[in-house]
């Protein structure tokens, strides 16, 4: 029996060495995540989302792999947020406005406040959400928000004054439906992917939109006139969120990478919106579409017309014990500072 002891010790030592070697040489398991984006793959915002995902992969040395499902192929735009909550996708990008009433405080981001550009809109939107941490998005982890430049009116027939909008069927989303009502039009709720065909077939006669959609979604092909209504320029805030459970399962160092990259990408999305707006203006001018500017008196008419939208937001949020009045004043203060 004593002669077997050295052999057993040697065998155990050999086993331990082999186990240690294989354990050390084993590559760490890759964290694979899905990302649902409603933009088509050719759109600059989808491309910007792709660069965000690739940067995450680079900074984690390949520990994270993100697969993007563009054009609503995994979850459609209005279902994207709930798809993240339920785990259909791990990460999602879409518009708060596509789920009317689901985000009552954050609806204030979309008010017709005269946003000057996408960079300012994206920065303010993210800052406001991070500051107020509304309960309405507590069921996901928010990375950041980006938002387009001032919404304008694109139509199948010229709109040179407020009266021209009376009875006009206008595509809108979220709070912009109230803007259309206050301007005298008939709002028709729909997401961007539906708008081209609806304009083409006359289901709607106009659309409230950032000018970039006229190229990015090709809508400039099916309208004849653009009214520069940026004096009441609203925006549409777009979330980038992650399933809360998946987020909490990530190692702390991986979470930090997501946080750091997301901070950088607010400005990248904002710049992408502004670049796309410039391309949108060039696109419609290249198609010889009519561009209408409002004089000062007409601008004031439009500003006065949408005041009830702001008042309604304050009343509705106060009724839900939400700090809508403070939220709105905070945005207005930030906009004033940005001018």
Tell me the layout of helices and strands.
Elements lengths: L3 H22 L5 E7 L6 H16 L4 E6 L10 H7 L4 E5 L22 H15 L7 E8 L3 E5 L13 E4 L3 H8 L2 E4 L2 H10 L4 E5 L2 H4 L8 E4 L8 E7 H6 L2 H35 L3 E4 L2 H10 L1 H13 L4 H15 L1
Parallel strand pairs: 1-2, 1-3, 6-7, 6-8, 9-11
Antiparallel strand pairs: 3-10, 4-10, 5-8, 5-9
Structure description:
The structure is a single chain. The chain is an alpha/beta fold and 339 residues long. 47% of the residues lie in helices and 17% in strands. The protein has 12 helices and 11 strands. Strands 7-6-8-5-9-11 form a 6-stranded mixed beta sheet, with helices on both faces. Helix 4 packs antiparallel against helix 12 (324-338). The protein is globular, with a radius of gyration of 25 Å.
Assembly form of the protein: single chain
What is the H-and-E element order?
Answer: HEHEHEHEEEHEHEHEEHHEHHH
Determine the strand fraction and express it as a percent band: 15-25%
Task: Return the average pLDDT rounded to an integer.
Answer: 92
Strand order of the largest sheet: 7-6-8-5-9-11
> Which range best describes the helical content: under 10%, 10-25%, 25-40%, 40-55%, 55-70% or over 70%?
40-55%
Spans of at least 5 consecutive residues whose pLDDT stays below 50 are 1-5, 7-12, 18-26
Which class of secondary structure composition applies to the elements?
alpha/beta
- Rg, nearest Å: 25 Å
Distance between the termini: 90 Å
Major beta-sheet overview: 6 strands, mixed
What would the principal axes of the Cα set say about the shape? globular
How many strands?
11
Number of helices: 12
């Amino acid at each position: 029996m004593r002669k077997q002891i050295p052999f057993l010790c040697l065998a155990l030592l050999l086993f331990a060495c082999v186990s240690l070697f294989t354990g050390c040489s084993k590559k760490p398991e890759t964290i694979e995540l899905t990302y649902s984006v409603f933009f088509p793959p050719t759109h600059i915002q989808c491309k910007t989302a792709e660069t965000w995902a690739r940067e995450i992969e680079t900074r984690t040395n390949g520990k994270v792999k993100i697969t993007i499902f563009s054009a609503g192929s995994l979850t459609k735009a209005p279902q994207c947020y709930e798809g993240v909550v339920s785990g259909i996708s791990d990460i999602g990008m879409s518009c708060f406005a596509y789920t009317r009433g689901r985000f009552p405080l954050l609806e204030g981001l979309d008010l017709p406040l005269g946003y000057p550009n996408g960079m300012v809109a994206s920065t303010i939107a993210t800052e406001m959400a991070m500051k107020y941490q509304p309960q309405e998005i507590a069921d996901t982890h928010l990375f950041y928000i980006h938002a387009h430049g001032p919404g304008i009116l694109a139509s199948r027939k010229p709109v040179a004054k407020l009266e021209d909008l009376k009875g006009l069927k206008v595509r809108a989303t979220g709070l912009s439906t109230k803007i259309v009502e206050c301007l005298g039009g008939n709002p028709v709720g729909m997401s961007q992917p539906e708008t081209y065909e609806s304009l083409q077939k006359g289901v709607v006669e106009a659309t409230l939109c950032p000018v970039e959609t006229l190229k990015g979604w090709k809508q400039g092909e099916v309208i004849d006139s653009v009214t520069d209504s940026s004096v009441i320029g609203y925006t549409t805030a777009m979330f980038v969120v992650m399933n809360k459970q998946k987020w909490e399962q990530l190692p702390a160092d991986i979470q930090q990478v997501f946080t750091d990259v997301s901070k950088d990408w607010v400005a990248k999305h904002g710049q992408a919106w502004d670049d796309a707006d410039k391309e949108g203006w060039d696109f419609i001018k290249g198609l010889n579409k009519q561009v209408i500017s409002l004089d000062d008196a007409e601008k004031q008419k439009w500003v006065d017309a949408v005041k009830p939208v702001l008042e309604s937001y304050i009343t509705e949020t106060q009724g839900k014990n939400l700090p809508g009045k403070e939220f709105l004043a905070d945005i207005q203060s930030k906009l004033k500072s940005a001018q």
